[in-house]
Write a structure and sequence with these properties.
The complex is a heterodimer of chains A (635) and B (333). Chain A is of the alpha/beta class and 635 residues long. Chain A is built from 13 helices and 35 strands. In chain A, α11 packs antiparallel against α12. About 1% of the residues of chain A have low confidence. Chain B is α/β, with parallel strands linked by helices and 333 residues long. Chain B is 28% helix and 31% strand. In chain B, strands 1, 2, 6, 7, 8, 9, 15 and 16 form an eight-stranded mixed sheet that branches. Chain B is globular, with a radius of gyration of 20 Å.
């Protein structure tokens, strides 16, 4: 498929694709369809560049193809669940013949030529993903840093300068995190320049190992299991690496939340940070025109870049009334339409595969506006990515409209936006401070460096549209696929919850604010799957006590052999009644406690002495009904 | 001395605590404040909320039978009739003492109308009353409000209980504190706590996929765990004790399962495993601890006991499980 969504190379707009080499085109197949790309593309970026923006359908509704729900692929010649890797982590390779995991389970429909913009996978039916397995490599370090953004890189630099052996793992194939979306302040070094400088320095430091394309799978008791994606002869594969480290810095960043409105995951809808990386790293835009809906200033910067790159920005909707920001000023100067006080109320899909977006007033009773667009970019609040903190046993609480870490953990420190810091300067300082805290040295002060709120309006809470609309309202990006309607009847505990989903449920009033931390802690991913074990309870032939017989028929008891005929055996536990008693267990005078001698007929009953003295005829209440019984003749 | 504006302050966040509070107000006309933590229906239940204990005394089974007869009507008043189900419970016995215990339990249960069947691995108990906890948690707040129970968040203000059992909280006071919350009991001064208390850990895990079984509830007393089947091939596992907990849980799985959620809770039990219900002599607080998985079902009886209208057999049973008991059935249920 041709690259209809690839932006032209133009250094002015800086969305030419830092990661790709346009002098090295390539071609690969996915589910039999040919795609073009460049060296440096991921399979996802090349597929999006071709204009495929839908992963398929969920309950007959189309679902956007985004990094959070990228399908897993393996090469056609080596199809196993164990080797299937999400396409956002697979490097595009010339001549590769890839198939999605779902296609192996017969869930792919044939390509619909009238809608080549979809992968036509039936979402939600993917089976239990492969996990676990033995580590193929084992590494040791004094310090493990998870996250290769500015905070993690800064922590690595500080640790390396102090002579410590460091391993840094980064989930993506590139370093830098999301700092470039936020840009530099004033005349400070740009995030990309910072990343390049630090990465170069760490590369030449023999004490530092950087593992890119490596994602932590489990984190417990000084050992971390990492899944790293590599390529062998053009075939993607992953390997498990075990890393032993007694100190860990979690610099895992923050995830952009999904604003809540009907149709918020239709094809054509994309998150602001994801849209930024798609443009900056791969030179891909989602479509020829876009609406940007944001509650922060940084998405205006994204809109400006896209506008410079030739994407027509229909309008920028913002629930804030006349927000102050340099980026807002630039947008006005560039002639972009700014829709102050507006939020997306719903999005619907047109026959032409466009989005029909209804924008309404966040406050007030003004008639909504309907705008048609190819792309709706939504930029929401940031939720610290505390998944690994929780996995390590950390606690969280709801504060400042998000879940935040609570308390401390031995041997684990947070740095950067996961710790709640906002500015690049603070994120970098916090990386150094985290290392100092773990090694017991003096920590530098961590100070936010931000413009005054008078000059840069702060972000506001992600807007929530009223319920309604034809398309589902999802609560979060990612694979949990929680929808607003899932909770109206009280679905309860059975759904997987993400941190963004929990945050949305707090805002919707489904989860109490002071319960949010506990809900998040319960939902922490505790390692890999639970595999069946051969554990059995220890057995013993020793004598045991029978407290259930103590004083059951008084202090003075006796045992006797009772029978009914020469065949029937009485079950242990069967209650014995006096001949004429009503069968109320409270009136039982005895109970069968053992089989008869030599496993003969009847059974040994425990009686109160008085009851035994009063009669030699009884009723035994068996599970199949009452049976008469008498004392067995003395042998 | 402040005016006593409430008759009872129920301290706790469990279903049992909420139901006791509501019943005291609605059925017995008492002024009640419930001091607890608001929880959402998305939390894992720490209890099976199943009306079954491996009891070997007639008194306990009689109480369970009474509770079974009563719970439907109580839930109707709450507007939560659909929160009551009847489930089959399979018990797998593996050791001789357990086999012998359950032989006695099964026959006694049968005597009180429970349908029991011997199986290859142990016993099947049919039609055991079970509560849909998330459902009930959602509906209780409205019922409590209609019953004019005042609710207060225990984390927002300090709570103090006097030596006379009166409770002070955020300018409000109640004549009698009723501690239905294990944490509240553990925060009492050590010298007034019942000597037989100990803390018992329980791990609750939501798993999927778990192969369906014939019985909705499976119990392995020798592995100290239970599995409760849920829709969509999920199961809630309750594992008592932390030693070898993962291995014990994994031993009852036939295929790998993913953990969707997990929680560890501590519960108070007495040395003999039986409940502790009654007045603390030196603190005059009423405690209800160690009720375990049947706690919510005992709420009507507890409310009657507090209101002074307990039936004779309830009184006898509850007296046997007083916090500083010495006689009775030795704590045996």
């Amino acid at each position: 498929m041709s690259q209809t969504h690839r932006l032209t190379l133009d250094t002015a707009h800086q969305f030419g694709g830092l990661a790709i080499d346009r002098s090295k085109p390539l071609t690969f197949r996915l589910n039999g369809k040919r795609f073009h790309g460049f060296v440096g593309d991921t399979v996802l970026s090349a597929v999006l560049a071709a204009g495929v923006d839908a992963i398929g359908t969920l309950n007959t509704m189309p679902l956007a193809l985004t990094a959070g729900i990228a399908p897993r692929v393996s090469t056609r010649s080596d199809v196993t669940r164990a080797n299937a890797i999400p396409i956002e982590r697979v490097a595009a390779s010339d001549g590769a013949d890839l198939v999605t995991l779902e296609s192996q389970e017969g869930l792919v429909r044939r390509w619909r030529h009238r809608d080549p913009g979809s992968l036509w996978l039936r979402v939600g039916s993917a089976a239990f993903p492969a996990g676990g397995g033995a580590a193929e490599a084992s590494l040791e370090a004094e310090l493990l840093i998870v996250g290769g953004g500015v905070a993690g890189l800064s922590a690595a630099e500080a640790a390396a300068n102090a002579g410590h052996k460091v391993i840094l793992v980064e989930r993506r194939s590139w370093l830098g995190g999301d700092a470039s979306f936020f840009g530099a302040l004033g005349d400070e070094e740009t995030p990309n320049a910072v990343v390049e400088r630090l990465a170069e320095k760490l590369k030449s430091d023999g004490n530092v190992t950087v593992l890119a394309n490596a994602e932590v799978q489990s984190l417990a008791a000084g050992t971390v299991l990492v899944q790293q994606v590599t390529s062998e002869s053009g075939s993607p594969r992953h390997r498990l690496v075990s890393i032993g480290a007694t100190r860990v810095v979690l610099a895992t960043g923050a995830s952009e939340r999904l604003p809540i409105f009907a149709g918020n995951r239709l094809p054509g809808v994309m998150g602001g940070i994801e849209a930024w990386h798609l443009g900056e790293r791969f030179g891909v835009a989602h479509g020829p025109n876009a609406i940007v809906a944001t509650q922060n200033n940084f998405a205006y910067r994204l809109a400006l870049r896209l506008n410079d790159a030739g994407v027509k920005i229909s309008r920028i909707a913002d629930p804030r009334i006349n927000p102050q920001s340099r980026f807002v000023d630039f947008a006005k100067a560039s002639g972009l339409t700014l829709a102050s006080g507006q939020i997306p109320m719903q999005a619907e899909r047109t026959r032409e595969r466009h989005l029909r977006v209804t924008l309404g007033q966040a406050v007030g009773n003004v008639s909504p506006v309907v705008v048609e667009t190819s792309t709706l970019i939504v930029s929401g609040m940031l939720q610290p990515a505390l998944e690994l903190w929780l996995m390590a046993g950390g606690e969280t609480r709801w504060a400042g409209e998000k879940l935040q870490a609570l308390g401390t953990l031995d041997g684990v420190a947070l740095a950067g936006s996961v710790a709640g810091y906002r500015s690049m300067a603070a994120c970098m300082s916090s990386g150094k401070a985290a290392v100092a805290a773990l090694f017991g040295t003096r920590a530098p002060a961590v100070t936010e460096v931000e413009p005054d709120a008078a000059f840069e309006a702060p972000p506001v809470a992600s807007p929530i549209a009223p319920p309604g609309g034809t398309a589902p309202t999802y609560l979060d990006w990612g694979q949990t696929l929680l929808a607003r309607n899932d909770f109206t009847g009280g679905l309860g505990i059975g759904r997987t919850l993400s941190l963004g989903g929990i945050a949305a449920l707090v805002e919707l009033g489904v989860v109490a604010q002071n319960d949010a931390g506990a809900v998040a802690e319960e939902r922490r991913i505790a390692g890999g799957p639970l595999l069946p074990s051969a554990w059995t309870p220890p057995k013993s032939n020793a004598a045991y006590e029978t407290p259930w017989l103590t004083d059951r028929f008084g202090a003075e008891t006796a045992q006797a052999h009772i029978i009914v005929d020469d065949k029937r055996r009485f079950e242990r536990g069967a209650l014995v009644y006096a001949n004429t008693s009503a069968r109320d267990p409270a009136n039982a005078i005895g109970v069968i406690v053992a089989p008869a001698p030599d496993n003969g007929p009847g059974g040994i009953a425990l009686f109160s002495k008085a009851a035994l003295a009063a009669s030699d005829r009884f009723i035994v209440e068996t599970l199949s009904g009452p049976s008469p019984a008498r004392l067995a003749p003395a042998s | 001395m402040a005016d006593e504006t409430y008759d009872f302050a129920i301290v706790g966040s469990s279903l049992a605590a909420m139901m006791v509070a509501g019943l005291l107000a609605q059925e017995h006309g008492r002024r009640v404040i419930l001091v607890g933590r608001p929880t959402s229906g998305l939390r894992l239940s720490r209890l099976l909320d199943l009306l079954f204990v491996p009891a070997t005394t007639s008194g306990t089974w009689a109480l369970l039978a009474q509770a079974a007869a009563e719970i439907g009507g109580i839930l109707t008043k709450i507007g939560a009739e659909d929160a009551l189900r009847h489930v089959d419970m399979a018990v797998e016995v593996e050791r001789d003492p357990t086999a012998e215990l359950f032989d006695h339990v099964a026959h006694l249960a049968s005597g009180y109308g429970v349908r029991v069947h011997r199986t290859e691995g142990g016993w099947l108990f049919r039609g055991i009353p079970s509560l849909d906890s998330p459902n009930l948690h959602r509906k209780l707040p409205a019922w409590l409000e209609n019953s004019q129970v005042t609710r207060a968040d225990v984390d927002k203000h300090p709570l103090s209980i006097g030596k006379d059992g009166a409770l002070q909280f955020n300018g409000l006071s109640a004549a009698q504190a009723v501690l239905c919350d294990d944490d509240a009991i553990l925060h009492l001064p050590e010298e007034v706590q019942p000597p037989s208390l100990r803390v018992h850990q329980r791990l609750v895990t939501l798993l999927e996929p778990v192969k369906p079984a014939k019985a909705e509830v499976q119990n392995w007393p020798d592995r100290r765990l239970s599995l409760v089947r849920r829709p969509d091939n999920q199961a809630l596992a309750f594992v008592n004790g932390v030693e070898e907990a993962e291995a014990r849980l994994a031993s009852v799985l036939s295929a790998p399962a993913r953990r969707l959620a997990a929680a560890q809770s501590r519960q108070l039990v007495s040395n003999d495993g039986a409940p502790l219900v009654g007045m603390l002599p030196r603190a005059k607080s009423f405690v209800a601890a160690g009720l375990g998985d049947i706690g919510a079902f005992l709420a009507p009886a507890l409310a009657r006991l507090l209101a002074g209208t307990a039936r004779a057999e309830e009184h006898e049973w509850l007296k046997a499980y007083a916090p500083f008991r010495s006689g009775g059935p030795g704590g045996r249920l």
